[in-house]
Structures are given as C-alpha cells and as structure tokens.
Amino acid sequence: MLPEEVPEPKREAGPRSNSSSTRWQEPAPAAESGSTPVRRRRRWPWALGVVAVLAVLAGALALAWFVPIFRVSTIAVDGTRQIDQQSVLDASGLTEGENLLRIDTTDAARGVVSLPRVREATVARAFPDTVRIEVVERRVAAWIDDSGQPVLIDERGEPFSDGEPPESAVRLEGVRQDQTEELAGAVAVAAALSDESARLVDHLRVEGPSAYTLHLDDGRTVFWGAPVDNENKAVALETVLKREGSSWNISNPAMVTVR
Fold first, then answer.
1. The whole model's pTM is what?
2. What is the pLDDT of residues 19-68, one digit of tens each?
3. Which terminal residue of the chain has fewer beta carbons within 10 Å of its beta carbon, N or C?
4. Do residues 107 and 84 make contact, with C-beta atoms less than 8 angstroms apart?
5. Closest CA to 129 of 161, 155, 94
C-alpha cells in the first residue's frame, strides 16, 4: 500500500516589496516573571524649591532697592590735604539718608574729580550705611605769577588755576608757560624739594637751560645748575641750609662749594 502524499502547505500570496533592504525590528523583551517595573524619579519638587528661593531673593532685592532699608548715615572722605572735605562732599552730590543701593558711585567720583586739585577719586559703598570717598590730590610743585594771578603747576608740569598756591609751592621766575623745556626743568627741581626746604625758598630763577638758582627767604642763593640728579641735589640743599654762607654751589652734589 502506497503512503499517502501529504500536500505542502500553501503559501498565501501577498504583495512583494520592491525594496532590496530588510527592516528588522527587535522583539519586545518578555517581561520576567515577578519583576518590578522601574519608574523615573520625579525631580520637579527640587526645581520648584530652587525657583522659590530665587523668587524670595529677587523680592528681597526689589524691596531693598525701592524701600531704603540701607540708608546712608556716614560719608567718609580720605586723602585730602589741600582741599577741605566739605568741597569734596558737595562735588560728589551725595547726601545722608539716601538709599545706599541706589547711589551712583561713578557719577559721584566724576563730580569729585571735577575739582581742579583732585587727580583721582574712588567712591565705594560700605554696608550697611557708609560711603567712602578716597581722594588723590594733585601736588602743586610750583607756580607762576601771571599779571597778578597765580598759575599753579603740578608735579607733572600741568598748569591749572585754583586760588592761591600752598606754602610748599615754589614761585618760578625767568620762565614762561610757552618755554616748555625750561618750565619742565624748573618743575622737576621744585618737585624734588621737601616741603620743609621749599618753604624756605622765595623763588627759583631760570637763567638758562643749565642754570637754575634758588633764592632763599633770608637772601642766600644756592646754584642748582642743570635740572639733573635732582634727588641728590635736594639732599645736598638740606645740608647747606644748616650751614653759614651766603652763596652755595650744589651743581655737583658730591662736592658742595661756596661761591
């Protein structure tokens, strides 16, 4: 008896893809028996906390900005010798009772620098209630009498007008403002003198590029020579001022002589 032929299963006809590529899709992993699903931790409570802190800080700053919690009760001025402190306060525009946070330190410093004898100014807050103004003054080293009006000259040789010169400023003679080289030399000599020595000088006469002579209040003269080696000559001058003699030569500070 012949075995029966088992017919092959028919394949269902379906549309064939014209694409030569094959797309694979990984099967979903089977869930393990007894496993616990993993959930992501929610971080939004932490974010809300940070936002809340920032909101509180912003509110506190806004309150301090619009409500004068930090009031200015002290305005301290440092560095003044020639200028009275009230002039500095007036120029700064600052007043007690202002909101410390809202003062314009840049504008205040600009106002102080507008004073002729001020070279630099720094304005800073010092919580909770203080403003500090630090002043760097221009040193008036010399001055020239211009038709009865004093023209002040600072240690950098910059002329300006601001009332009477201090006692330590040396009056210059024999030189004009347009004589740049001679004026620079005279200012360098005057700036080298100590305040104590400068107060004993009636004037400094410029007789030539290398001929500068100090005329003292008591009538004595000290020949300085060229405006070089000024620091050592200033030391020699202090020695000469303690000695007798009506005319001295310190053009060579290592060999002081009587003229």
1. 0.70
2. 333 344 445 554 455 555 555 555 566 666 666 666 656 654 554 455 56
3. N
4. no
5. 94
The rounded distance, in Å, linking the Cα atoms of 230 and 24 is 94
Q: For the chain, what are the domain ranges?
A: 74-137, 140-258
CB count in 10 Å sphere of residue 50? 9
Quote the CA–CA distance of 195 and 169 in Å, as a whole number.
Answer: 8
Contact 223/250 with Cβ under 8 angstroms? yes
Q: Are 165 and 143 in contact (CB under 8 A)?
A: yes
Question: What is the third-level CATH fold of 74-137?
Answer: Ubiquitin-like (UB roll) (3.10.20)
Q: Are 214 and 241 in contact (CB under 8 A)?
A: no
Q: Which of 151, 124, 146 is nearest to 135 (CA)?
A: 124
